[in-house]
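Human: I would love a firmer grasp of how sequence relates to backbone shape in proteins. Could you go through the record with me and say what the backbone is doing? Here is the record:
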Amino acid sequence: MSDSDFKITHEEQANNNSLQIYISGELTIENSLSIHNYLLNNALEYNSVDVGISASTSIDLSIIQLIIGFIATRNKTGKVTTVEYNIDESDNDIINKTGAIELISLLQKNQKV
């Protein structure tokens, strides 16, 4: 797998200093460094960031941890971060088997409704 297995796009709304990021495709450890670098280099300065990962074809725990770390970093400076995502049946099995339910709970606190 390579970085070409995923895509990141964004929409900036300068009038309210917000950014919407859409990450689609395979969100796996193979792509985590590129996603991490994108978030750090492009999204920390905004007051509000919405990260959409609902269009992912697969996601692993490394990406969930990365997004939770991104949220925690922004929370320290009082910035708002929301996440839009879907978890399907196969993801639930992995989450339950690995004990990652606490990570999902942390992610849900910032879920976009």
The mean pLDDT is 84. The chain has one domain: 3-108. The radius of gyration is 14 Å. Residues 3-108 form a domain with the Transcription Regulator spoIIAA fold (CATH 3.30.750.24).
